[in-house]
Amino acid sequence: MRGERVAVLGGAGCLGTHITRVLAGAGVDVTVLSRRLPPGFPQARTAVQALPQGPSAAVLSEALAECGAEVVVNAAGATQGDARTMVQSNVRLIRNLVRAIAALPNRPRVVQIGSAAEYGAQPGRTAITELTACSPVGLYGRTKLAATDAVLEAIREGAIQGAVLRVFNPIGPVTPVNSVLGTVGTQLIRQRYLPNPLVETGSLDTYRDFVDVRDVASAVLLAVRHEAPPPVVNIARGEAVSVRSLVRRLVQISGVPARLLERPVLHQHRSQGLNWQQAALGVVQLELGWHPRYGLHTSLHDLWTAATETGVEWAGGADEVECS
Q1: pLDDT per residue as tens digits for the range 194-210
Q2: What does the pLDDT read at residue 322?
Q3: What pairs with residue 211 in β-bridges?
Q4: Are 232 and 164 in contact, with CB atoms under 8 Å apart?
Q5: pLDDT digits (tens, 9 = 90+) for 39-64
């Protein structure tokens, strides 16, 4: 079966950590390509190759040839920063990766981790399919869409084979600190022993489709082992959920008697302006046979458990793709 030797770019990050564990647990030999070691390393069936920041196509080609990867999962990227950082991490990296793969005699397939932010604002409250026109509203969404376009163009031209998994809002253990729930969790950790804990957020008057990070990793495994996955696949639970209700549930799970204060002017996230998002899951269910296994309460509970075990240092870091 093809897909038993896999390289994971950004395998030390939030999603990359879970992807690496699931792949290795399924008997796949994984090479993490990253600037730093993944949490808990060394791990069975997992090796690490160090990469410089902003690796060139030549550097990536050499790394892929050395590890003999049959599939490359790109879970690296930046979710915040200035325009140069975002373009370098989200666009230039994947373009270099495409060039690196095209230069190899045995070209590995690509599984690119995309984002729901690529879809942007949509009219009405209609579930988003893979054919929905993209209209990203911020720099993160625009750079992620540019990365997807680079992959799809290379597929059309026959330079590579692969797919883009458009991940909606991932939550669960090791949640990014600059996501809404990650921000709330970090504040709860820091204030849990204070007499009057206060959690400040931006506007929570939005609805999002959340998916557990472990479910995302299981979808990646299926895409890795699929010989010809669809070019774009939504990964979500297929349910729009009130962000305010999830934040309140997280506070309740934590047991911290925190007061919640919404301050929209002071807290603006990269998904600003998107009031409602829900994914259609027909493609991933039909083509990959994937269904989400984790309920939101379990994801929130495990998010908090991981946070209390690791303190405020609970995010994946720079080599990661986070929730939109």
Answers
A1: 999 999 999 999 999 99
A2: 39
A3: 170
A4: yes
A5: 777 788 999 999 998 999 999 999 99
Residue with tokens 């994971």: 8
Q: Which of 60, 66, 73, 152 is nearest to 101 (CA)?
A: 60
Q: How confident is the model at residue 141 (pLDDT cuts 50, 70, 90)?
A: very high
From the candidates 140, 193, 207, 294, which is the catalytic residue? 140
The pair of structure tokens assigned to 92 is: 């230039």
Please name the residue ranges forming H helices in the chain. Answer: 14-25, 57-67, 83-87, 93-102, 139-156, 180-191, 213-225, 243-254, 282-283, 296-310
CA 139 to chain centre: 16
Residue type, 224: V
DSSP 211-278: EEHHHHHHHHHHHHH-SS--SEEEES-S--EEHHHHHHHHHHHHT--PEEEE-TTT---TTTT--B--
Q: What percent of the chain has pLDDT over 70?
A: 92
Q: Enter the tokens of residue 279.
A: 């994914």
Q: Is 140 a catalytic residue?
A: yes
